[in-house]
Design brief:
This protein has 359 residues and is mainly alpha-helical. The chain has 18 helices and no strands. It is globular.
Length: 359
């Protein structure tokens, strides 16, 4: 009864019943011969075109928004008047009340992000360094990144927040990148291997980004109708995989690691950014994930800025031209998402279309 399981999973995700109760109800209902078609005679079908929207399950109502604002303000105030170590007990108390008992989705996201920020700051303090200036590779970077999958993984095991699992996976990918660089540095006898071999670093980063995207697609293909927690995990993984792919490709092209300053100065290479963003947009259309489109818009803006500034126009002129161009692209893709997706999906093999969200 996969349809019945989807209904129970959705009820648990929306907080109507506890997840443990959903797991116990499924064999009970199946044993008593309950079928989905019996339920459909009493309630209208909820079959909606899942592929024309990408609304994450944590967006539910202004009630959650109001509580989330309170969480952010309260934790910021506590951080200011006490210390960073006083924030963790507050996060735990709020999670127990708002997530475990009341099962509020948006506050769960906010508290997960707060825990990630807390982990970053505390890890940097323990290592006596700033999180903005920890170079990739080396003992410090490995110890710093190792904290994220450990803390957030434990948080997911306790509270089952999809964002926590996605951040755990992304943190593990960064740790894997660090371990590979450490191994290559040890084998080559070069402690600054990642600095002296930027091309190898970019290739490894692309491999990690592709692996992250493949893992996101694994979760996505388990739930093409976007009804279960797998869709939420895939949403966050795609949100991280898209910029990782973009900036690793830019780094391989020689754009100084894909920083925004490089995009402004090395304008003759900006077509690489435009082509990469276009490819991500195409992938986003195929898999019906707008995250692939939005994640590259900032970089696309800087790339177009670098192209326009080659002319003789004033600074404010090509800034406004860049804004107008990016805005037009967003409007065209946003308003024509479904027709564009139907056009793209119609040219894919039937077997591939069957595994993707319907168009």
């Amino acid at each position: 009864m996969p349809e019945l399981k989807l209904i129970l999973d959705e009820a648990a995700r929306e907080g109507l019943i506890p997840r443990q109760a959903a797991e116990r109800l499924l064999p009970f209902l199946i044993a008593h011969g309950v079928r989905v078609d019996q339920l459909s005679s009493e309630a209208p079908s909820r079959s909606v075109p899942f592929s024309d929207t990408e609304t994450p399950s944590f967006v539910r109502g202004f009630h959650d928004v109001l509580i989330t604002i309170g969480i952010v303000v309260a934790l910021a105030g506590l951080w200011g008047i006490a210390s960073v170590y006083a924030v963790l007990p507050a996060i735990v108390v709020l999670v127990e009340i708002l997530v475990r008992r009341q099962r509020l989705a948006l506050p769960a996201v906010a508290l997960t992000i707060a825990l990630a920020i807390w982990t970053a700051v505390v890890a940097a303090q323990w290592l006596e360094d700033s999180p903005s200036f920890i170079p990739i590779g080396g003992n410090v970077a490995l110890q710093y990144t190792l904290a994220f999958p450990i803390v957030l993984g434990l948080f997911y095991l306790l509270y089952r927040v999809p964002l926590a699992l996605a951040l755990t996976i992304m943190g593990a990918a960064v740790v894997a990148l660090q371990l590979i660089l450490r191994a290559l540095g040890w084998l080559s006898g070069d402690p600054l291997f990642e600095v002296n071999h930027p091309i190898v670093l970019s290739i490894i980063a692309i491999a990690c980004a592709v692996g992250l995207f493949a893992l996101a697609m694994t979760f996505d293909l388990r739930d093409p109708l976007r009804r279960t927690i797998n869709s939420d995990v895939a949403f966050w993984l795609h949100l991280g995989a898209a910029p990782a792919l973009l900036y690793s490709v830019i780094s391989l092209a020689g754009l100084s690691g894909g920083t925004l300053a490089a995009l402004q100065t090395v304008s003759f290479r900006t077509p690489v950014v435009v082509v990469t963003v276009a490819a991500l947009m195409l992938i986003g259309l195929i898999i019906d994930r707008r995250a692939f489109v939005t994640s590259g818009l900032l970089s696309l803006g800087f790339a177009l800025y670098g192209i326009f500034r080659l002319g003789d126009a004033r600074v404010d002129t090509y800034i406004y031209i860049t804004l107008l161009t990016v805005g037009a692209i967003v409007l065209v893709i946003g308003t024509g998402w479904m027709p564009l997706r139907r056009f793209v999906m119609g040219r894919l093999p039937v077997a591939m279309q069957a595994k993707l969200p319907p168009a």
